[in-house]
Specification:
Radius of gyration: 22 Å
Helix content: 25-40%
CATH architecture of the largest domain: Orthogonal Bundle
Number of strands: 12
CATH topology of the largest domain: Transferase(Phosphotransferase), domain 1
Oligomer: single chain
Number of domains: 2
Largest sheet: 5 strands, antiparallel
Structural class: alpha+beta
Strand content: 15-25%
Length: 371
């Protein structure tokens, strides 16, 4: 609070922001740094499980040199000697480290632990992933509906597309886009996670990419290790065929996420991999407006955003948006139309407040209670 009562105290940028888990203190910044300091994995302590993926374990730990909590990622023990998975793990660390964009997680270090197993550390991110948000919307959670109206969800997609545009410019294709890999922070920042299946420009087609058959009980929402590159429920047709991928594969991935945002339901569903692959390769893409059910937001599906979605989801990559720049332009037009329509509809009794600072191409963010 200001010492001068005539000067108002600064207003926090977001009143609902959760205080940091470890607020900065002077004893942390001014702590002694011993002459015989610990390096490598020895400097990490207080490991705590965070989550697990299809191939790796993710923990938080404390860096005793920098006095901060970081994320520590390592392969599952049974994959520690798998040359293919180790190479992919190292690629994830190096790819992420070499696309230093506000929408990616900074990588701090890569190394081997005392047993010789590879690991890398990166920034500990706070927030809520889009999968959780869409699930809460499907359950009609009122606080989530207020915090993430359709306009805000489109903003999130535009932010993710901006990050992917940067990655594509650097020669990197994500290839594993899904709601769980988009993290929304307390200050509106959007981070694209998990670059473990990224393709680097010039990389040859992976060996053994021939068609695979499904099996009951397969964890279809987990990224699958091995020959197929992508998450089955969010896989593009070219990935499902084991063919070549490019920037338009990520266009498809964002289209599948947009479909779920608009309709309240995933584009692809099924109990085994064969059923999922059949849907991806043979079923015509439905219109989001045709599959809206009780899980969808209580608004109609905007025709312009539906058109953007359907173009992203074309089976032939040549029929999709040619790159992220074209998709961002189309999404921004749809966003602007959505905002304009609600501004012209005072009967809804809603208020729009435009605020800067969410890192979007339009330079504005919508704080709207539109549902």
């Amino acid at each position: 609070m200001s010492a001068d009562p005539t000067i108002p105290a600064p207003t926090p940028p977001h009143a609902d922001v959760v205080p940091p888990e470890h607020p900065l203190r002077v004893e942390m910044t001014d702590a002694r740094f011993d002459r015989y300091w610990k390096s490598g994995s020895l400097k990490y302590t207080d490991f705590r499980p965070l989550t697990e993926g299809g191939t790796a374990t993710i923990q938080t730990c404390f860096d005793i040199n920098l006095n901060r909590t970081v994320v520590y990622k390592s392969l599952h023990p049974h994959l520690a000697n798998d040359e293919t998975e180790v190479a992919r793990f190292l690629r994830e660390a190096r790819v992420t480290a070499n696309i230093p964009h506000p929408g990616t997680a900074p990588v701090y270090e890569i190394g081997r632990d005392k047993a010789g197993n590879v690991y890398f550390t990166m920034k500990k991110l706070e927030g809520r992933d889009l999968r959780s948000i869409l699930g809460a919307l499907a359950d009609h959670d009122r606080s989530t509906e207020n915090a993430y109206p359709l306009a805000r969800r489109v903003e999130i997609l535009i932010s993710a597309a901006q990050t992917l545009k940067y990655a594509h410019h650097a020669g990197v294709i994500h290839r594993d886009l899904k709601p769980a890999n988009l993290l929304i922070g307390s200050f509106g920042e959007v981070t694209v996670l998990d670059w473990g299946l990224a393709k680097v420009r010039g990389e040859p087609a992976p060996p053994g990419a021939e068609k695979i058959t499904g099996q009951a009980g397969l964890a279809l929402e987990l990224t699958q290790p091995g020959r197929r590159f992508g998450t089955p429920l969010y896989m593009s047709p070219e990935q499902a065929r084991g063919g070549s991928t490019d920037e338009r594969t990520d266009v498809y991935g964002l289209g599948a996420i947009l479909f779920e945002m608009l309709s309240g339901r995933p584009l692809i569903f099924g109990q085994d991999l064969d059923e999922v692959l059949t849907q991806i390769l043979e079923r015509p893409v439905p219109r989001p407006s045709d599959v809206v059910g009780d899980a969808a937001p209580r608004v109609g599906v905007p025709a312009d955003l539906e058109a953007v979605c359907l173009r992203c989801l074309q089976c032939d990559p040549a029929d999709r948006y040619r790159d992220m720049a074209a998709l961002i332009a189309a999404l921004t037009r749809g966003y602007d139309e959505l905002v304009a329509r609600h501004r012209e509809s005072p009967a809804r009794g809603r208020t729009l407040t435009i605020a800067a600072g969410l890192g979007l191409a339009t330079g504005v963010a919508l704080k709207a209670l539109l549902s």
